[in-house]
ABC transporter ATP-binding protein (Roseovarius pelagicus), 358 residues
Amino acid sequence: MMESNSLLRLRNVVKQFGSFTALHGVDLDIEEGEFFTIVGPSGSGKSTLIRLLVGMDEVTSGEIWLRDKRIDQTPANLRPTCMVFQSLALFPHMTVGQNIEFPLKLRKEAPGKRRARALELLDLLRLPRDYYDKRISQCSGGERQRVALARALAFDPEILFFDEPLSALDYRLRKTLEKELKDLHARTGKTFVYITHSLEEAMVMSDRIAIMNAGVFEQISVADEIYSAPVSRFVAEFMGEVNLFDVTADANGTLNGSGLTTGTDTPPSDLSAGETGLLMVRPEDVQFAREDGRHHYTIAGQVVAEYALGSRIQYEVETETGQTVSVEKLREHRLPDAEGQSVILGFSSDATHMIRGA
Ligand SMILES: Nc1ncnc2c1ncn2[C@@H]1O[C@H](COP(=O)(O)OP(=O)(O)OP(=O)(O)O)[C@@H](O)[C@H]1O
């Protein structure tokens, strides 16, 4: 009865806590073997969604399907899924081997077979085989993460869910484990559903990313598309530093608003007459213009701040309409004595993206 072949499907999933609606009718299709990441700010509903998917909580309405089985009413222990928790929940008094074998023991597999599988999983997670007899309390934070992953894989789940598994780790270890997770995904071919509030983490690892805001998905797409063609102000701003100009098209498709001047040879926008939108341009695509005429769009302002960002310099320019525009330059293209200078900023229409209807 379902129209798609995806592994996991959500249809109009609503979750309410009393009068508060945490999820407003979410639709989602996750394909077999995908690394799918849900990103969103704190409180946007990510953990609520995961809890519904693994069966730790019940939907208020809507449907969850795993292949051709509806599972939203299925108890957690009967769902063929698995979760890697934020806090690891390993058994600290047991050895690494005993932890990894735990799911196999539950399934009453023979000791020899369990050990063989645990050793295979140690190899897969690139942990030395002699860790089999090591106690969890003697393992480092990163090693514990790997043991937890090995244990999750021992369950042999249809889908692995990750709820911010790296958030408690320091920067370098996080970077290492991000790469390892991506690699592990490739080697196992499993479906990974990953939750994070770190966009950077999502971009490094995922096949597709869903951006969640206040209980709805604002955009679901591959990372490049979300970066270069966000569908809303929220997504654009979530993706990092951007400049957004409120504009309206006139009868010729020429954009007006926010103090922008449109050059005579500027290609017409694809907005129709009277339509409004947000014109997006990234700080690295904004130039300090010497002559207005050379750029498709120009805007006048004054440099109010300058920040050194390692190899790059960021300038904040306040425009005549009171908007702050960010400009980024490589250190060697630095603007001398920038602060306080009146400047004209320019950018090409090729470097812009239009968020329609905003
Ligand atoms: N049991 C509950 N009772 C009432 N409200 C809840 C409950 N669980 C979650 N909420 C509310 O639902 C909203 C979504 O919470 P959720 O934990 O899913 O957010 P999140 O995106 O995972 O946030 P974080 O990144 O901080 O973990 C929040 O406003 C939260 O206060």
